[in-house]
Write a structure and sequence with these properties.
This protein has 424 residues and is an alpha/beta fold. 40% of the residues lie in helices and 14% in strands. It has helices spanning 15-24, 36-43, 54-63, 96-105, 125-134, 159-165, 175-185, 198-229, 233-240, 263-270, 276-299, 326-336, 362-366, 379-382, 386-390, 407-412; strands at 5-9, 28-32, 67-70, 78-81, 114-117, 146-149, 168-172, 193-197, 307-311, 340-344, 357-358, 371-374, 397-400, 416-419.
């Protein structure tokens, strides 16, 4: 099938790059979002998110006349729903944005249209929630219009490359819907396109992120055990991974982002009795920021009345995404322990986080610090010279939560060095 026009609903970390890539291939794309500030920014050529290469791609797509931004859904041959799916406090999936997006398509739905849900969702969301909404049109999914689920499977910082090169999974409510999805994404996807049913595709996405979460949980749990046994966890992991059938991941502050720290709960929600390991892994990773905060507090001899230079708030290195960030959780724990905390996040200088004071330079974070905490391994932080840092602060303790710094170099510069299960 040929799709000349496309409306992408949700101009976030996935929707905006997806719309830009489609437009760059000559598809007439409307990027829609209900956030007025986001649309005003896009119309002015200002992106609200950072992703390498995205600014240039977006400007080029707009300049070609193939991409426009709007606060309302426009008629199109195909519609992609790429809205957030967070969870409530009780960890149930919050699908209100998906419901709203499907309802916004309804007045524009015509026979032969294709609708694709990309938002990560609990199994059967496509069949049990999206399809009934769209069928209020009087048309039948899979017959009068086509409906599929195709999850994003990209890594922040590499989105534009992975959108094109990664394998794509497309699950249709029937075979014709899956094949239509294949025809749409083949516009730019170079990787394999695997066709299946909608619920399997939903399950695949959750399985991918849940398996990562479980693997990180065992690494984090190993770090706690290593701390108790006075073992350097990084040395131990390096040795264990020499085994040809072992691949232990690195521990850290926890697990964040909108996928790995969220998606496993969707499986726990739909079948809690059969998701015991998944739930336990989530709890381990959710508790890791508090564990690391305890280590920092112990190393500092208490934090009451002390000032912390806190480096990094993003959920992973070299991105501006703070969603579900364990670094943010860690900062809040330190503040609750009595610290005055100044955080420097170079990729997001003013995130407006409640209770967390952000500064706009490394020097501002360091000037009054008693303790320096490396919470996120941004490349520019890992490249810091401890001898130069010594001239910017009176802090005598550094704590490396992500193994971004060499212990010997910092100790040579006169700092006391501590870290997550670090001996060397």
């Amino acid at each position: 099938m040929k799709f000349n026009t496309l409306c992408v609903i949700g101009m976030g970390y996935i929707g905006l790059p997806t719309a830009s890539v489609f437009a760059s291939k000559g598809v007439q794309v409307t990027g829609m979002d209900i956030n007025t500030a986001i649309i005003k920014g896009l119309l002015a050529g200002k992106l609200h998110i950072f992703e390498p290469g995205l600014q240039d791609l977006y400007v080029s797509a707009v300049g070609s006349g193939h991409l426009s931004a709007s606060e309302s859904v426009k008629p199109a041959d195909a519609f992609i729903i790429a809205v957030p799916t967070p969870f409530y406090e009780d960890k149930r999936a919050d699908l209100r944005a998906v419901v709203s997006a499907a309802e916004s398509i309804l007045p524009h739905l015509k026979p032969g249209n294709l609708v694709i849900l990309e938002s990560t969702s609990p199994p059967r969301t496509t069949l049990d929630i999206v399809a009934p909404i769209l069928e209020k049109s009087g048309m039948k999914s899979g017959e009068d219009f086509l409906l599929a689920y195709s999850p994003e499977r990209v890594l922040p910082g590499r989105i534009l490359r992975e959108l094109v090169d990664n394998p794509r999974v497309i699950g249709g409510v029937n075979r014709a819907s899956a094949e239509a999805g294949r025809d749409l994404y083949r516009t730019f996807v170079k990787g394999d396109i695997i066709l299946t049913d909608a619920t399997t595709a939903e399950m695949v996405k959750l399985m991918e992120n849940t398996s990562r979460d479980i693997n990180i949980a065992i690494a984090n749990e190993f770090s706690r055990l290593a701390q108790a046994f006075d073992v350097d966890i990084w040395e131990a992991i390096g040795i264990a991974n020499l085994h040809p059938r072992v691949e232990i991941l690195n521990p850290g502050v926890g697990v964040g982002g909108h996928c790995i720290s969220v998606d496993p709960w969707f499986l726990v929600e739909v079948d809690p009795e059969d998701a015991q390991l998944i739930k336990q892994a989530r709890q381990v990773n959710d508790e890791q920021p508090a564990f690391v905060a305890g280590l920092i507090q112990k190393a500092a001899g208490g934090l009451e009345g002390k000032t912390v230079a806190f480096l990094g708030l993003a959920f992973k290195p070299n991105v501006d995404d703070l969603r579900e960030s364990p670094a943010v959780e860690l900062a809040q724990h330190l503040i609750n322990a009595g610290a005055t905390l100044y955080s420097y996040e170079p990729y997001r200088l003013n995130a407006g986080l409640p209770g967390i004071t952000q500064v706009d330079s490394l020097e501002s974070a360091l000037v009054d610090a008693d303790v320096v905490v490396l919470a996120v391994g941004h490349d520019q932080f890992k490249a810091l010279d401890p001898l130069q840092i010594q001239d910017k602060t009176h802090a005598d303790l550094v704590f490396d939560a992500v193994r971004g710094w060499k212990k010997e170099a910092w100790e040579t510069a006169g700092f006391r060095f501590n870290g997550l299960a670090r001996k060397y």
